[in-house]
Design a protein that fits this description.
Blueprint: H1 22-38, H2 65-71, H3 77-84, H4 97-106, H5 119-132, E1 163-172, E2 182-188, E3 201-204, H6 210-219, E4 227-229, E5 235-237, H7 238-244, H8 253-262, H9 266-277, H10 290-296, H11 304-309, E6 317-320, E7 331-337, E8 340-343, E9 346-349, H12 351-359, E10 365-371, E11 386-389, H13 396-408, E12 414-420, H14 423-426, H15 430-439, E13 444-449, H16 459-465, H17 467-475, E14 479-484, H18 486-505, H19 509-521, E15 525-529
Parallel strand pairs: 11-12, 11-14, 12-13, 14-15
Antiparallel strand pairs: 1-2, 1-10, 2-7, 3-6, 3-10, 4-5, 8-9
């Protein structure tokens, strides 16, 4: 079990006669001792105890996969698998990064494609790591990994048993003529039993595009009413399975292998076998989604039920909540960027964002659940100053923060750094944000509209322009928040923050890095990145 070694219980809880090896018995005694201790009054309730950041140097979503794997070299298999994850602890997979990897390492989780942020790269790396270190068998494979904690009430909605919210409205946030489409989606929580705090996220189970489902059924010459029994034991018609249970965006190894077996053309069968072995190394045009695979390989037409079972399961999407219940009782607001693009001969569209923008009508039901924030919430001290950096839809949780601070009359100063493409078209929630500035809820507002001038201006540039003031805020105890793209924006913001610490604090680069690590450990440098 590698690193999963809880403290040994002074009083053994597993009898000596139990059918386990001494090592297994010791591990189980420690596990159950920790479980019982967590149930004592005043004890922590988290399923996974907090670990010092230095124990997991790869646990940073801004690091590239290759860098993370290098940092995990020589570690036990479960930790190397953890390094392959998206590092967001977002809960979309039903676990945290560490518990998902431990579940795979022990054999209690077989699905290697649940990490939505990591995508194909994570699934490919996990496959290689599992081949290198196959999961344990026998008693070692007991499922003792806890999934991500849900709200404490037994009847509360969960990822696998969501509540049904309903759509109140979906309104555009960009002005006509914008190159982007961003929606403020408002859902009613009436009757769901859900309650949230600013910083939390909402999990949403989308439905695939009905027209795409019908095209796939037509290509396979299927009626859609054919029955299929899914791996979880549920039976349903293939049309419903394709709409609600199957991922139509990411064709994977199982699908390519199935198509290869049924391809009547030898060349196509060989190409599909290569895609099954490594879809990134196979020659020929990329296969972007399931429909692409069927169109490109015309001789491969498997039975529709087998086709459904070869698809990866549809995963929920998480959205940072963009509202405070104090301002919008019984509602939850989401800031949704609608993703559409053309590539080659056809157009592509993201599942969840177009679900909200195109396929839902007022009053439609939406399966949802709450994903509580692990470490992205307002300071307990309402007088503490906060700095919020959020370009694009990264503004969402900061709108919630400002609504909450305004509603509670919090004394702390608030500084927002927001960026987007063009001020005229893309200033999201403009009236509300400018209203907070006039009322003094916002102490400072810095804007970075990248395409309003010849040279690109981003949020990190605004930070560096105000380096001295930002340093003063940090020295006064400000909390620093970042929300948005992990790979580029968050990395650029962190780089700028280190440069500001080095310049304004008179530090070396190494000392500046240590300064940010201390801010993180103190809970004053917080990121909600994706």
């Amino acid at each position: 079990m590698g690193d999963m070694t809880p403290p040994v219980s002074p009083t053994p809880l597993v009898p000596e006669t139990a059918p386990f090896t001494p090592a297994q018995r010791a591990w189980l005694n420690g596990f159950f001792a920790g479980l019982l201790a967590a149930q004592q009054p005043g004890s922590a309730t988290a399923a996974v105890p907090a670990e010092p950041p230095e124990d997991f140097p790869w646990h940073d979503p801004a690091l590239a996969l290759e860098e993370r794997m290098k940092l995990a070299e020589g570690r036990p298999p479960a930790l190397r698998m953890m390094a392959a994850m998206g590092q967001l602890d977002c809960g979309q997979c039903g676990y945290l990064c560490r518990t998902y990897s431990e579940a795979i390492a022990t054999g209690s989780e077989k699905d290697l494609a649940r990490c939505v942020p990591g995508g194909k790269a994570t699934a490919k790396m996990l496959k290689a790591l599992v081949a290198e270190a196959p999961p344990a068998r026998g008693p070692e494979a007991l499922r003792v990994i806890e999934p991500v904690l849900q709200p404490s009430e037994k009847s509360a909605p969960t990822r696998d048993q969501p509540a049904l919210a309903w759509l109140l409205r979906s309104e555009p946030l960009n002005r006509p003529g914008a190159e982007k489409q961003t929606q403020n989606v408002v859902l009613s929580l009436a009757g769901t039993g859900l309650s949230y705090r600013p910083g939390d996220s909402l999990g949403v189970w989308p439905v695939n595009c009905g027209e795409e489902v019908e095209l796939i059924l037509a290509i396979l010459r299927a009626k859609g009413s054919e029955p299929v029994t899914l791996p979880d034991g549920r039976s349903m018609a293939v049309r419903e399975a394709l709409a609600r249970r199957c991922d139509l965006r990411e064709p994977g190894e199982e699908l390519f292998r199935l198509l290869s077996r049924h391809a009547r053309d030898d060349i196509e069968a060989t190409q599909l076998a290569r895609l099954a072995a490594d879809d990134q190394e196979a020659a020929g045009p990329a296969v972007h989604d399931v429909f692409d695979a069927l169109v490109r390989f015309r001789s491969a037409r498997p039975p529709v039920a087998d086709f459904v079972l070869a698809l990866a399961p549809l995963q929920p999407r998480l959205y940072s909540i963009a509202s405070s219940l104090r301002c919008h009782p019984g509602e939850v607001h989401l800031t949704v960027s609608v993703v559409r693009y053309d590539l080659g001969w056809r157009g592509y569209a993201a599942v969840a964002s177009t679900f909200f923008a195109d396929r839902l009508r007022r009053g439609a039901r939406v399966p949802v659940y709450l994903q509580p924030a692990h470490a992205f919430s307002l300071p307990a001290d309402s007088a503490a100053p906060i700095v919020m950096v959020g370009p694009g839809t990264g503004l969402a949780p900061f709108r919630a923060f400002l609504q909450e601070r305004a509603a509670t009359g919090a004394a702390g100063k608030n500084w927002l750094v927001f960026g987007n493409q063009k001020r005229e078209f893309d200033f999201l929630y403009r009236g509300e944000i400018e209203g907070y500035l006039r009322k003094g809820v916002l102490s400072r507002l810095d804007l970075a509209f990248s395409r309003d001038q010849a040279h690109k201006v981003y949020v990190q540039h605004r930070m560096k322009e105000s380096a001295a003031e930002l340093w003063r805020w940090l020295e006064e105890g400000a909390y620093f928040y970042v929300c948005g793209d992990a790979r580029r924006m968050a990395a650029d913001v962190e780089r700028a923050l280190k440069e500001i610490a080095a310049e304004q604090g008179g530090m070396t680069e190494e000392r500046a890095k240590e300064y940010l690590a201390k801010l993180t450990k103190a809970g004053r440098y917080l990121r909600d990145v994706y």
